[in-house]
Structures are given as C-alpha cells and as structure tokens.
Amino acid sequence: MPLQFHRAIEGTEIWSASSDGYSFVISFQSPTGPGFRGRLGYVASWRPLDQSRGSIRILGSPLQSFAEAEDACNTMLTYLKDETASAPTGKREPP
Questions:
Q1: DSSP 8-state secondary structure symbol assigned to residue 20
Q2: Tell me, what's the pLDDT at 92?
Q3: Which of 29, 35, 57, 81 is the residue whose CA sits 20 to 30 A from 87?
Q4: What superkingdom does the record give (predicted)?
C-alpha cells in the first residue's frame, strides 16, 4: 500500500507519512521566501521510527514535484522492506 502523506503542520510545506517502522517527510524548499532554504524543489527524506537519529535524504532530492517526491519515498520504502526481509537474522543454524 502506498504511503499516505498528510500535512505535518498546518500552513507549512511539510508532509509526513509512516509505514513498516519507517518515517518519511517531504518538505518544500526555495532559495528565497518563507520556509526551508536551499535549491528549489521538494526534498524527500526517511528514518527508522525506533532510532533516535537524523533523517536521510533520498537520492535525487530536491525533486520538481510533490508527486515525484512521493514516488521516491514509496520506492525507498519498498527497497527498505526488501532489505529487511533479506537481512540475516543473526541466528545460527545447528551444525
């Protein structure tokens, strides 16, 4: 199921969604004006929900549209879930 983004704070250009133990944020930034400063576009990032660490910017950010940023987040979630499913569990098999 695709991520369902909602506006994190009313009146801002920040949207968030979470699924499968990961949090995703899309924010709009521009070189001038209110809000986040940087190259013009939508920045997508993610982080694990159960860890106190900073977020990781998704490759390609900033993106030209919200839809592109949303697609990038959904693609990253699919990748993260696949990596988690194929990661070793750390359990040893009996000899």
A1: T
A2: 47
A3: 57
A4: Bacteria
6 CB-contact burial (10 Å; exposed 0-12 / middle 13-18 / buried 19+) = exposed
| Cβ-based neighbours of 58, under 8 Å, separated by 6 or more | 44, 45, 46, 69, 72, 73, 76
CA–centroid distance for 1 within its chain: 15
Each domain of the chain, given as residue ranges in start order, spans: 6-85
What DSSP string describes 29-93? EESSSSSEESSSEEEEEEEETTS----EEPTTPSBSSHHHHHHHHHHHHHHHHHHHHHS--SPPP
d(CA 29, CA 37): 5
Read off the pLDDT of each residue in 33-55 and give the average, rounded to a whole number: 89
38 φψ region: left (φ > 0), alpha (ψ -120 to 50), beta (else): left
Measured at the CA of 88, the angle between CA 87 and CA 92, to 5 degrees, comes to 175
Non-local CB neighbours of 53 within 8 Å, separated by 6+ positions: 47
